[in-house]
Amino acid sequence: MADALGKLYTSTAVVTMKARGKTNGITIAWMTRVSWSPPMVAISVGKTRFSHELIAESKAFCVCILRKDKTEVAELFGTNSGRTMDKFSHVQYTLSEGNFPIPEGTIAYIECEVVEECEAGDHTIFVGKVIREKLLEDADPLIFGEHTLL
After folding, report:
1. Collapsing DSSP states into helix, strand and coil, what is residue 121?
2. Which of 50, 60, 69, 117 is an S-S bond match for 83, by CB 3.0 to 4.6 Å?
3. Mind listing the domains of the chain with CATH numbers?
């Protein structure tokens, strides 16, 4: 049965981070721009996720917006845990200027420094000040809600 919350469609992204000598990524659909000046974005990450630990420790993350045809990349990063698997050994990637991994199929990325954390039920909202951003391809993003994902 459909519900009203299911009608909130957003771009699908892989958020990447690095801490403890590890790189990791997690698929998210809960993100938004929250400020023009300075430019800031917010992401929501489940408190039990390994990625949550790494972002909380490193105080940085990179939002990698996926191209419409990259459901397999979203599924890889959304259904496996970085605690037990090196997700980047299963996908081609490059490194951003800030040394964040950028998985194949990324059309744009946004590197952020965490400036605020807010408890939100079983998630934490990380607010990030944009350090750098780059458009890699002018293409349609993968939209969470249009397809069966995760």
Report:
1. coil
2. 50
3. 11-144 (2.30.110.10)
